Amino acid sequence: MLFALSQLSSILDANLVGDGSIAPTGVGLDSRSIQRGECFTALRAERDGHEYAAMAIEKGASCLLVDHNLDMPVPQLVVNDTLAALQTWGQARLRACRPSAVFGVTGSVGKTSTKELLAGAISAWKTPGNRNNTLGLPAALAALPDGLDAAVLEMGMSTPGEIQRLTEIAPLDFGVITNVGIAHMGNFPNGQEGIACAKGELAAGLIPGGAWVFPKDDPWCQWISKQSWTSKSKPIPVGPGADFSVASVESLGLRGERFILKSPMGNFDFEIKFRGRHQVQNALLAVSIALIAGFKGNEIAHGLASVEPEEGRGRLSPLSGGGWLLDESYNASQESMLSCARALLDLDGGEPIAVLGCMRELGSESASLHEAVGVMLRQIGISRLWVYGDFAMELACGFGYGASAYTNFETLRLALAELPKGARILVKGSRYWMSERVVEYLLNKSGGAEQAGINNVEGVK
Question: pTM, whole model, 2 decimals?
Answer without folding.
Answer: 0.84
